[in-house]
Amino acid sequence: MRLTILFLTALILLTSCNYSDNTKVTSDTLIVDQQSDTTSNKSERQLLIEELKRLKVVFASKDKEKIADLFHFPISDTTVGIYIDDSTFNAQMDKNDGKTTRAMFIRYFSEISESLQIEQLDQLFKKIKIDDLLQKDTLEHEAIIKAEPCYHFYGVGVDKNHVTLTLGTNSNKDYKSKSVSEDEIPENDSSICETVLWWVFRFDGKKMHLKNISGAG
After folding, report:
1. In whole angstroms, what is the distance from residue 88 CA to residue 101 CA?
2. CA dist., res. 25 & res. 19, Å (int)
3. Least confident of 5-14, 71-80, 152-161, 176-185
4. Which long-range contacts (CB under 8 A, 24 or more apart) does 109-116 make?
5. Which residues, at least 6 apart from 154, have a Cβ–Cβ distance to it below 8 Å?
6. CB of 73 within 8 A of CB of 102?
7. 111 vs 71: CA distance, rounded Å
8. Number of helices (H), then strands (E), in the chain
9. Which residues pair with 158 in a beta bridge?
10. How many CB atoms lie within 10 A of CB 10?
11. What is the pLDDT of residues 114-131, one digit of tens each?
12. What three-state secondary structure class fits 175?
């Protein structure tokens, strides 16, 4: 009789433990499913915007190592046009068959940053509301200063899985140039003011990958 009572007690305890474990597993599964649903419920455009905001933080940091992480080294001059007036850098480029190594990028970051207008990328993200991409594929901003002969303009464009960040300068047509002789070029002449640079990224649904950088002017 005593053995029977002990057996029944053990059975009750075992059943109770199994119920508790099953409840915990079910609860844990529910939490994981809820987290998965939260991620899957985000549209691809929302994920793209989050990636652009990540880039915004990287460019705002001005951290050469973090910015270098955006590139795939060595960088070919056919993919990213880096133009620096430095004989040592250019000699190293020639030696590397037109490629820039990470070590070169870090060493000449200040000059490369100017060439690729990295500081202006920081301004782009300050001037343009990236969240507006939820309703639009193209965002633009012109930073015109009345007293300046040239002005900066910025743009973000989404075309399928490609994102283009546009940086440039243009002539301020309303600028009143100081008195110049007939043979002098006005300060707001297009030959002086007009430049454009395109940073093109590919979005794989999760992350942004730098594809190429090109320019004109």
Report:
1. 14
2. 10
3. 5-14
4. 109/64, 109/67, 109/68, 111/84, 111/86, 112/82, 112/84, 113/67, 115/82, 115/83, 115/84, 116/80, 116/82, 116/197, 116/199, 116/213
5. 120, 123, 124, 127, 128, 140, 141, 143, 165, 166, 167, 168
6. yes
7. 16
8. 8, 7
9. 163
10. 10
11. 999 999 999 999 999 999
12. coil
Taking the CA atoms of residue 74, residue 204, residue 54 and residue 125 in that order, the dihedral angle to the nearest 10 degrees is 90
DSSP 98: S
The rounded distance, in Å, linking the Cα atoms of 113 and 61 is 13
Q: Tell me if 152 sits within 8 A of 122, measured CB to CB.
A: no
Per DSSP, the three-state class of 138 is strand
Question: Which among 150, 154, 145 has a CA at the least distance from the CA of 127?
Answer: 154
Q: Are 143 and 127 in contact (CB under 8 A)?
A: yes
pLDDT confidence of 5, banded at 50, 70, 90?
very low
Structure tokens at 139: 């965002």
Identify which has the larger pLDDT, 11 or 71: 71
pTM of the model: 0.79
Q: How far apart are CA 162 and CA 212, in angstroms?
A: 11
Euclidean distance between CA atoms 209 and 205, whole angstroms: 11
At a CB cut-off of 8 Å and minimum separation 6, what does 157 contact? 137, 138, 139, 163, 164, 166
